[in-house]
Amino acid sequence: MSSATETMKKEKPAGKETAKAPQGRVKPQTSISGSVAVMEALIAEGVTDFFGYPGGAIMPIYDALYDYMDTLNHILVRHEQGGIHAAQGYARTSGKVGVVFATSGPGATNLVTGLADAQIDSTPLVCITGQVFAHLLGTDAFQETDVINITTPVTKWNFQVTEASEIPTALAKAFYIAKTGRPGPVLIDITKNAQVQKFDYKGYTPCNHVRSYRPKPIVRKEYIQAAAELINKAEKPFVLLGQGVILGKAEKEFKTFIEKAGIPAAWTVLGLSALETDHPLNVGMLGMHGNYGPNVLTNECDVLIAVGMRFDDRVTGRLDKYAKQAKVIHLDIDPAEIDKNVQTTVPVWGDCKETLPMLTALVEKKEHPEWLNKFRKMQVEEEDVVITDELHPKGEIMSMGEVLNILNELTKGDAVIVTDVGQHQMVSCRYAKFNKTRSNVTSGGLGTMGFALPAAIGAKFGAKDRQVVAIIGDGGFQMTLQELGTIMQFDVNVKIIILNNQFLGMVRQWQQLFHDKRYSFVNITSPDFVMVAKGYGIAGKSISKREDLKSALQEMLNHKGSYLLEVMVGKENNVFPMVPQGCGVAEIRLK
Amino acid sequence: MCFAVVGGIKIKISNQVIKAMKHEFTITVYTENHIGLLNRIAIIFSRRKINIESLNTSPSEVEGIHRFTIVINEVEDVVKKLVRQIEKQVEVLKAYYNSNDEIVWQELALYKVSTDKVITDVKVERLLRQYGARAVVIRKDYTVFETSGHREEIDKLTEVLGPLGLIEFVRSARVAIINASNGFYEKLKEFEEEKPGDEIVENEFLDKQDEVFSM
Ligand SMILES: Cc1ncc(C[n+]2csc(CCOP(=O)(O)OP(=O)(O)O)c2C)c(N)n1
Ligand SMILES: [Mg+2]
């Protein structure tokens, strides 16, 4: 805390303070500008690090920030998309709300991809955009766009502020809505006149209730009972672990539940790291490139217990061939998710932090050794056909899997793994080892190429004492590589691994398997990545031989500060297993 | 079980088939009165390429609470999911859906007819009387009639008036009262008292406990 705030504290009349939040440096009852009110709100909400890019319509806010630089750490990105992905990465590792600033018009439209990503992956964000003067709204003024309407489908809530006095309440509401219930992105658009206008500041009161908004429902005991009954009678119960467990900070509750009921659990891509990889009941990953056992046995279990996941089509494959034999228990905080894709037998609508312990109390202590063994057997099969070759390839050419394998060996599973989108993402999700929750940052629902590099920057600020490793494809890296500039300027210690297969690999894989190998525009050329990094003052190396792999990874991890390692891998390797589009999960192909 | 008449033959239809058929549903939404909410609600339909047949916004029985009445043609399962998506919006308090037999509903129509025609053509006058139309404005050159009722009645009158010199026609959105509703006062109290919702997720299996829970 700065000395200015300290002094403020001393000056506060004792016992008169009602607001619970820490107040900034402005005393209530003083006249301040809307922009200063924004700063005060950020401090009161406990914001420390955030991201942004200035411009005409947000200049008063940046001007106010000038006086708050000692308390608020603003990171200047190179593109607003990078800013919002960084805020996402920050939210994912820290569990706090990510914050990003952007100017009107192009600044705001550059946020849209990140908003869509955060909306579909339930990431809590507060985005503040500048807007033209209120009297110019609708006149096609310079850098005016209808940001509210553009962002409506991709925000949990948005609001335009045209009066300075609305700022404290609007921001309090924004933070509250972003982080409660099913989290999501919120955008506040502030017209320039509201930023400069002065008003009588009443202090900042955090929001804890919005009349029309119910973040969570009352838990229905009878449903918990019905669920427990099903679980207790089940012979082949199976748990699906989704990001809801992480968002609900219910990792412990989850583990206690599966351990008592002895139920094998598989995670979705966004559920990764909510349970340690090595947990005896962790049977791997669901979905299109998930593990063999969890996919096949989805269609054999008798009770399917989905916790904080939404039956995305990449998880379910063809719905009419999905778990038809099973009774489905669905635990979710969002009532709109229940029965959306898969018809539920027992809906347990509520916050899993509350519902899981209630369920644990009612389930019998059990083990299902034979059932669990089935998963293990299929794992062995998968190892024989896919995994061993991927992790220890016989040929000269390196595979993505072996990079992950050595990385696991060196990090022991303690690193935060940030991935982009494509083959390298699926390989990383399949093979990266996790000991700790909030260690996996990836764009799941939207599959946004270009996500990883900026998200890794945010992830590092959200988990400053952890090693952050970004694993990126040669294609995706070229989508947001300008954020190397941010890494350079702010000395962000992230390690970047480019798994270079000289292709838009995932698309190439589909073209090979489903389009007769007609490689249409997947052959992408790359610059000398190490040289590019050098241009930004970032150390790096490129390797193409197995004998260099371990030492290069070690060098990267040991390096003080950021580092870029390019690993040349097989050009036409495929990710398997795979549930081809339009197939049921049990039709998963091992090769 | 239900019956339908197809080509003069009465046939049996199972409930399953009925469920899979598109019907007219009226969705009633209680909301805060906020700018932008209309768009938020409208895109829930357009995103899924569902046409809104009629949309009305008005104050409700409760001061400060707005009421949307939306009519669509869809299968019930889709309507149920749409309603949940609507209710998920931060500024929506509650959304309901009803089939036509669960509501009292009306639409209003205005017809502009040449006054000469009305005076000279007895047919026009008879028609207007038959449909219970009421003159709103009478001028030398034209007369505006108003009628209210169900869509079919209004459409019928429009159809017959058409060839008889209908100059202008407009029909309003549907407004509807839910038969089983006791109004929104009690529900609003729950919201204001910061109570979490105690709504039940409707579930077909929980009514059939014995079948489902014995395995
Ligand atoms: C913004 C964006 N554009 C296009 C795609 C479609 N897409 C998915 S994976 C992929 C290829 C990615 O190539 P690369 O980054 O080299 O990763 P690889 O699959 O080779 O590991 C593409 C083009 C996408 N997901 N996101
Ligand atoms: Mg590639």
SSE diagram, text form:
The complex is a heterodimer of chains A (591) and B (215).
Chain A: H1 3-11, E1 31-33, H2 34-44, E2 49-52, H3 59-65, E3 73-76, H4 80-94, E4 98-102, H5 106-109, H6 112-120, E5 125-131, H7 147-151, E6 157-161, H8 167-179, E7 185-191, H9 192-196, E8 198-200, H10 221-233, E9 237-241, H11 244-247, H12 251-261, E10 265-267, E11 282-285, H13 292-298, E12 303-307, H14 313-316, E13 327-332, E14 346-349, H15 352-362, H16 369-391, H17 400-411, E15 416-419, H18 423-431, E16 440-441, H19 452-462, E17 468-473, H20 474-477, H21 484-490, E18 494-500, H22 505-514, H23 529-535, E19 539-543, H24 546-558, E20 563-568
Chain B: E1 2-6, E2 9-13, H1 15-19, E3 23-32, H2 37-46, E4 52-59, E5 65-74, H3 76-88, E6 92-99, E7 103-114, H4 115-120, H5 122-130, E8 134-138, E9 142-149, H6 151-161, E10 166-171, E11 175-178, H7 185-192, H8 209-213
Antiparallel strand pairs in B: 1-2, 3-5, 3-6, 4-5, 7-9, 7-10, 7-11, 8-9
The complex binds thiamine diphosphate (TPP) and magnesium ion.
Thiamine diphosphate (TPP) binds next to α18, α20 and α22 of chain A.
Labels describing this entry:
heterodimer, A: alpha/beta, Rossmann fold, 3 domains, six-stranded parallel sheet, 38% helix, disordered N terminus, B: 215 residues, Alpha-Beta Plaits, five-stranded antiparallel sheet, four-stranded antiparallel sheet, 11 strands, globular, binds thiamine diphosphate, binds magnesium ion
